[in-house]
Structures are given as structure tokens and as C-alpha cells.
Design brief:
Layout (H helix, E strand, L loop, with lengths): L1 E5 L9 E7 L6 E2 L4 E6 L4 E5 L4 E5 L6 E3 L3 E6 H9 L16 H7 L2 E3 L6 E3 H14 L2 H4 L6 H4 L2 E2 L6 E2 L4 H16 L2 E9 L1 H18 L5 H15 L5 E4 L2 E4 L5 E3 L1 E3 L2 E3 L2 E2 L7 H17 L4 H4 L4 E5 L18 E5 L3 E7 L2 E15 L5 H16 L2 H5 L2
Parallel strand pairs: 16-20, 20-21
Antiparallel strand pairs: 1-8, 2-4, 2-7, 3-6, 4-5, 6-8, 9-10, 11-12, 13-23, 14-15, 16-19, 17-18, 21-23, 22-23
Helix pairs in contact: 8-9, 8-11
Amino acid sequence: MKVEIRVPSAGESVTEATVASILKPSGTAVKADEEILELETDKLNQVVYAPSSGQLELLVKVGDVVKVGQVIGSVDTAAAGVEAKKMPVEPPKEPVKKEKEPEKKVEKSPEVPGAFPGARKKVDAALQEMQSLEAKLPEKIASPTPAPSSARQSLPSADGRQTRQKMSKLRRVISERLVQVKNETAMLTTFNEVDMSTVIAVREKEQENFQKRHGVKLGYMSFFIKASLAALQEFPDINAQIEKDEIIYNHFFNISIAVSTDKGLMVPVLKNVDQLSYAEIEKQLKTLAEKARAGTISIDDLQGGTFTITNAGQFGSLFSAPILNPPQSAILGMHNIVKRAVVIDDQIAIRPMMYLALSYDHRIVDGKTAVLFLMHIKKNLEEPTRLLLDL
């Protein structure tokens, strides 16, 4: 019996995918739930598994565009039974005693019989010829391991000074959305700076105990998420979005966190942060980041965000203007913490400072609201006790 293999659903907004790589060639035997190929969608890559054990037959090749629900192959379950019958159990054989040492004959003569009558070659000469032949073989024949799809699509120029490679579906979608944001929103950015002294002191004091109790480190991101949550509750316009000629106010708080991966930028969503503790935030952040980098993140993990935080500081960025994550109306940019000379009570002091950036859609968020929102985050970070007192 042949069991069909269909393109699985990858969310409501995903209708097609591209065959990124074939992990099991057509005609090979596979086991149930074994990985057979990888599909690339506009949101993430998705592995397709064998529905049952048997002989695999694929109807697609790398680069083909397929629709959700389309039949892309089948598994012949009858072939699995035939293979099993063709493998009789051999009785144990008794060890055969060798009366002569064939090695001695080889040692006496520098030549060995060839595969055909009358063909005789010296061992050293034969090995040298084989190595020379292998070096001349094409790369695809010399290596049984299939090259990644990105490598197969690379086309070097005649002089070798350039290489062309087709953009991945994820990269194309990111590019289209960035241009869309620039053309369809009235994006502005406001900046401020925050003294991170108190947050750093709290982390250093509580880190060991926090890690022992919860099994995860206390990071900076959980402080920024808590501070952003308080500001979002105070300024509902930032948590809203535009749909045609209407403004939709979200009464839930799902914060998207930008994660850099080998395949591009992914923005998993931390759901209902108003119901999470610092420990729960850190645990979920760790899980989502690991899933994003491993390529196992789901569509549901990427949907439903109402506000985004991105941390360019982890790469050393001191100052930047982040771009909006549609359909959201604002995004907060964190940057590198640098010790600088600042004036405090008319005295010059050295403090660990961070520049903050808030990019927002001016169609829905007024400049005054954006400035006050960023000031609210600044105060909550410089005085974390405000969060406990709900100030």
C-alpha cells in the first residue's frame, strides 16, 4: 500500500513553500517519522517526516515550489515487508583454519594480479593512479553527502571574483516587509539614554540565588520586558495597530523578541507577559531562542505580537534606529552598555549608560506619547522598585 506524503499546513498566512533540501533520496528505504525533506516557507523552515516505513518515492526536487496539501511523494509500505523477507538469518559459521599465509607471497613480489586476465600492476602505481583519478572526479560524485541547497544555488562568475546565490524565501519576505514598512508607514524614531547602574547591581546581587532557584540566569531582557509592559499599560496607543481605516486596541500584551539566526532574523513572541514572573520570562526567552536557532520554532511561536524589543547591543551597536515590525506600531531598540561621564547632582560621575531608541508609526502614535513612553521605560529601569510599587 502506498501512503501519500502531503505538504503540511504551516499557519493561516502560509500557502506555499519551496523544497529547500532532500534528506532522503527517492527509492531509499525509510522508517516511520524519519526526516525525508525540508521545506522553506516565508516564515521558517519545516521538516517533512515519513508517514510510515517503506520505500520512498518523491515527486519533487530541490527548488520546486509546492502548495499546502499538495502530494509530493509516497511511501510504499509493502516494500518494507519484502525487504524484511529477503534477509534470512544465516547460521553461525565455524572459524576456518588457514593453512597458508598469503601475505608472504605478496611480500615476495611487488606485483599483484589484476581484475582481468593478464593485467598486472605494481601496488604503488595502482594506488597512485586511483588517487589521481579520484582527484579528477567532480565534487558531487566524490562526496556521497548531498550539498546544502544554498551551495547548489551558488553560481561563481567566470573570473571567480563574484558569486551569485538565490535569496532564501525567508530573506525575500524580510526584504519585502522592510520596504513595505518604509513605504506604507510614517515611521519616526525618538531617543533617550538610561543609567543601568541599578539594574546591574540587582543582577549581581541576586544572580546566584536566582539561578539556584529557577535554573536559569537573570538577564537584562526580563527587566526591559517588565519596564515595557508597565509603559504599554500606561500608553495604550503604543500597543495598538492600524487596520485599513480603523485602530485596533489590544488589551493583551504579547512582546516579540528579535533573535538572530543563521537563516535570518526571527521574532518569536512571548505571550501574555503581564501574567509572567521574571523567572518565567527568562525560561521562555531561553526556550524560544533555542528553538529559533535550531530551526524547530513553530508558526504559533511567531504570531500575535503587539510590541517588539530588539537588542543590537549584543553585537556592540551603540546607536541605531530599529525598523517597525508590522502590523505593530512601535519597536524598542536596546544598545551596548558603555561607561561614560555624566553629570549627576552637578557632579561628574562615571556610569554604565545605554542609549534607547523607540521607532513608532506616527499615524497612530503622537510624538508626545512616544517621548513619554520612552521616559516611562527609562524611569522604571533606573528605579526598578517602581515596578513593584506599580508607579
